[in-house]
């Protein structure tokens, strides 16, 4: 996919810095001008990263990646943009390019992590499936109790995170609600899925040991 983007870097250097300062001061018109000036540069950076990593994409995919870059630039009171310091020798377009490349790579890592998570976090999905099978009420109750006990062992913030996962909240929505990057959502979900799987297996073993002990006492 070829991007026909005419980018005047000299214009960005001269006008972009003034507009950035005004935009960060709350000037909405300056924000719009800043967006208009840097949108082609960000789109070009995103397309370059995708092509360099042999990631197939269409215009809708490109738009999604670019939108996430803009969200990352504005996140936490635009902290990434506020960190720009022209006295350190880096031009504003170069700084924007760096942030755009980092964000795009993070998105790709998040998608890779999400795929790995789908392949390896089956414990939680199997647990959900098992509780919906037409087994006896006692077995379903035991499985639900195992899941409840496993979740209870997580920290409160991790419990809230997993509740959002179980509600099928979108990663972008979770990122906004929790104030973290989308890539962090994918990574955290993967790690907590593994941890919860280990806790579920431990709870099951303990439950089996208790049932076995009760059975032996009943025999004797």
Query: What is the second-level CATH architecture of the largest domain?
Result: Orthogonal Bundle
One letter per element, helices H and strands E, the order comes to: HHHHHHHHH
CATH topology of the largest domain: Rna Polymerase Sigma Factor, Chain: A
Give the biggest beta sheet: none
Alpha carbon gyration radius: 24 Å
What average pLDDT do the residues reach?
76
Q: How many strands? A: 0
This entry's quaternary arrangement is single chain
The helix fraction, in percent, is over 70%
Strand content: under 5%
Q: Which spans have pLDDT < 50 for at least 5 consecutive residues?
A: 1-9
General description of the model:
- This protein is mainly alpha-helical.
- The protein has 2 domains: 9-118, Orthogonal Bundle (Rna Polymerase Sigma Factor, Chain: A); 123-219, Arc Repressor Mutant, subunit A.
- Helices cover 80% and strands 0% of the residues.
- It contains 9 helices and no strands.
- It has helices spanning 9-24, 28-52, 59-82, 92-120, 122-131, 137-152, 156-166, 171-178, 182-219.
- The longest helix has 38 residues, at 182-219.
- The protein is elongated, with a radius of gyration of 24 Å.
- The chain starts with 8 loop residues before the first helix and ends with a helix.
- 21% of the residues are buried.
- Residues 1-9 have low confidence and may be disordered.
List the helices and strands and how they pair.
Elements: H1 9-24, H2 28-52, H3 59-82, H4 92-120, H5 122-131, H6 137-152, H7 156-166, H8 171-178, H9 182-219
Helix pairs in contact: 1-2, 2-3, 2-4, 3-4, 4-9, 6-9, 8-9
